[in-house]
Specification:
GO cellular component, one term: cytosol
Distance between the termini: 34 Å
Family: Belongs to the ATP-dependent AMP-binding enzyme family.
GO molecular function: acetate-CoA ligase activity; AMP binding; ATP binding; metal ion binding
Strand order of the largest sheet: 12-11-8-6-7-14-15-23
CATH superfamily of one domain: ANL, N-terminal domain
Structural class: alpha/beta
Helix content: 25-40%
CATH architecture of one domain: 3-Layer(aba) Sandwich
Pfam families: ACAS_N (PF16177), AMP-binding (PF00501), AMP-binding_C (PF13193)
Shape: globular
CATH class of one domain: Alpha Beta
Bound molecules: ligand 6R9
Radius of gyration: 24 Å
Cofactor: Mg(2+)
Number of helices: 20
């Protein structure tokens, strides 16, 4: 590996950080190593407001269905709201800005009332009880957070579906979870224009969603929407009459808190199930360790609540930590590429957390834009979602952070619940593009499938070799798939361990460098997409015989979607542009615009092994314009590779 620069934590960060030396970091790592359960026991006792204490820290008897803090009782909304009322009832819990520039500040006391009223509404009007599933299909407005917390208050399991997903994708998720209620909004604002959500819900529910009894609609943009009298309910009207107090449901540590659907390498998206105590503990702890959140800070994570980052690092983590969390409705480039920097100046943001794709976009559209604003309030910058290239890292570090703010490159996943590998801002010397080291208590290791640790510069499987409190508990309704997907690849000491799906390498100093997915998952602008899902969508076009989808490196998006399509007919593709448009329309309908293909090549056949497996590796090389190094002689029809190269590379 070539030499890369290393940046030590600056004194201003060291001074304020909870963990402010590598010695302290290694000390914590050792503590966890020598007494794993004791390490977590101490933290859980110290950090969580238990209604009843747990009797066992970790139950491994049904591994890999691990249970944490067994027998403990709590309600995560007490952890996130009630317990703060004594000391910070008038502190801003959520600061929200709409894309048009409208603003709301919600104090902890107000949040308490909003969530309690909402919880009462769910109970009294819709009969939602502990364990019921509620789908939340919302834009980035405070009510999205209220809705999640209201579910948590009464023990209902929320499943937030990203507002960019299509009606079909929404329907799949509603059906899989057998949701009883859908909470949505009329619509919101994006790129200066209204965009609508309620009409998408209408289409989703038009077919095979018998489980859904009602739709609750929050008014945001007041655009006209169709109303189904016996199904649709007006939130803004109903909420007014709700009592402002709702006793929290007392939950077991291991009761499910939420489902969040994410793409895997095969089949339909899976409903990743998280539980109460372990999740909230880690959400709060990582806010303290990784973002070094302080009482006077204003913290901003730009994610959407439809993704795990929005769950853990806009809603649950910051609120559990008693922080002020910002929420922004729109896109980063409206009305111009200075929008976010202007907001950092205006709200004096202290921690700013975003995705590499956004950094690359803002770099491209406004390299000097940050200079126009006073960004001196910033202490810590964060990135998440995909590997960050050193160029983008350096721009973020120098232009946005003025060389004064450590960048925490946080590696984690929907399944991990919270950060796994990340620098500690006051301790870790950082290198552009490396997520550095596992957090204390997290046993992330790069190994081979038998559990042997890889030597520096050798790529291996990125695994977590011990269970951790905020880990995925199962895949909703499909425990076998849970075991197979995550515990079916790697073993250590003969025991199956969690494999993330990512590859990674150590450098000579033990720093971890994530190389990206080793499976058929692609990462477009930080969005996880399964090639299988996109291929299934493309297959719905009547002229498509078969297809294969691969990721291709992209300057801004990280990866773009490249499809190789074989048509049923030999009519040729005289109407290529039209056909590409149609195929992308099918994808938009089945999944959403985020999964559209950037490039489609119509090819006479796909490179397959004699057993019929598509060699995606070859297609990836062709898409990239690389020379084919793989042995093609084992293919059923090696000549097809030449033909595809001709078509793609001309
Ligand atoms: C939190 C989140 C998870 C996948 C993960 C990996 C990629 C996330 C990363 C990163 C390199 C980082 N990923 N953070 N790759 N460096 N700092 O993104 O969850 O949507 O489930 O995606 O994203 O490939 O496996 P999720």
């Amino acid at each position: 590996m070539e030499k890369v620069p290393v940046f030590d934590p600056t004194p201003r960060i060291k001074e304020r950080a909870r963990i402010n030396s590598m010695d302290q970091y290694w000390q914590m790592v050792k503590e966890a190593e020598s007494d794993y359960e004791g390490f977590w026991d101490k933290l859980a006792k110290e950090k969580i407001n238990w209604r009843e204490p747990y009797t066992k820290v970790l139950d491994e008897s049904e591994a890999p269905f691990y249970k944490w803090f067994v027998g403990g009782k709590l309600n995560v909304t007490e952890q996130c709201i009630d317990r703060h009322l004594e000391t910070k009832k008038n502190k801003a819990a959520i600061i929200w800005e709409g894309e048009p520039g409208d603003k709301r500040v919600i104090t902890y006391l107000e949040l308490y009332y909003e969530v309690n009223r909402f919880a009462n509404l769910l109970k009294s009007k819709f009969g939602i009880k502990k364990g019921d599933r509620v789908v939340i299909y919302m834009p980035m407005i405070p009510e999205a957070a209220f809705a999640m917390l209201a579910c948590a208050r009464i023990g209902a399991i929320h499943s937030v579906v990203f507002g960019g997903f299509s009606a079909e994708a929404l329907r799949d998720r509603i059906q899989d979870a057998q949701a009883k209620l859908v909470i949505t909004a009329d619509g919101a604002y994006r790129r200066g224009k209204p965009y609508m959500l309620k009409p998408v819900v209408d289409v989703a529910l038009a077919k095979d969603c018998e489980s859904v009894e009602a739709v609750l609609v929050v008014r945001r943009n007041n655009e006209e929407i169709k109303w189904h009298d016996h199904r649709d309910y007006d939130y803004n009207e109903l909420i007014k009459d709700m009592p402002a107090r709702c006793e929290p449901e007392i939950m077991d540590s291991e009761d499910p808190l939420f489902l969040l659907y994410t793409s895997g390498s095969t089949g339909k998206p899976k409903g990743v199930q998280h539980s109460q105590a372990g999740y909230i503990l880690w959400a709060q702890l990582t806010m303290e360790w990784v973002f070094d959140i302080k009482d006077t800070d204003t913290y901003w994570c730009t994610a959407d609540v439809g993704w795990i980052t929005g769950h853990t690092y806009i809603v649950y983590g910051p609120l559990a930590a008693g922080a002020t969390t910002m929420m922004y409705e729109g896109v980063p480039v409206y009305p111009d590429a200075g929008r976010w920097w202007r907001m950092i100046e205006e709200y004096r943001v202290n921690q700013f957390y975003t995705a590499p794709t956004a950094i690359r976009l803002l770099h491209k559209l406004g390299a000097d834009e940050p200079d126009k604003y006073d960004l001196s309030s910033l202490y810590i910058l964060g990135t998440v979602g995909e590997p960050i290239n050193p160029d983008a890292w350096m721009w973020y570090f120098e232009k946005v952070g003025r060389g004064q703010c450590p960048i925490v490159d946080t590696w984690w996943q929907t399944e991990t619940g919270g950060h796994m590998i990340s620098p500690l801002p006051g301790a870790t010397p950082i290198k552009p593009g490396s997520a550095t080291f596992p957090l204390p208590g997290i046993f992330a290791e790069i190994i081979d499938t038998d559990g042997n640790k890889k030597e520096p510069n050798e790529k291996g499987y990125l695994c977590i070799t011990k269970p951790w409190p905020s880990m995925i508990r199962t895949i909703w309704g499909d425990p076998d798939r849970f075991v197979k997907s995550y515990f079916g690849t790697c073993k250590k000491d003969g025991k199956p361990v969690y494999f993330s799906g990512d590859g990674a390498i150590y450098d000579e100093e033990g720093y971890i460098w994530i190389t990206g997915r080793m499976d058929d998952v692609i990462n477009v602008s930080g969005h996880r997409l399964g090639t299988a899902e996109i291929e299934a969508a493309i297959g719905h076009h009547p002229r498509v015989a078969e297809c294969a989808v691969v990721g291709k490196p992209h300057e801004v998006k990280g990866e773009s979607v490249f499809a190789f399509v074989v048509l049923k007919d030999d009519e040729g593709v005289a109407d290529e542009m039209e056909l590409i448009k149609e195929i992308n329309e099918v994808i938009t309908k089945d999944i959403g615009p985020l999964a559209k293909c950037d490039e489609i090549a119509f090819v006479p056949g796909l490179p397959k092994t004699r057993s019929g497996k598509i060699m995606r590796r070859i297609l990836r090389s062709i898409a990239k314009g690389e020379e084919i190094k793989q042995d093609t002689s084992t293919l059923e029809d090696p000549s097809v590779v030449e033909k595809i190269i001709q078509i793609v590379q001309g």
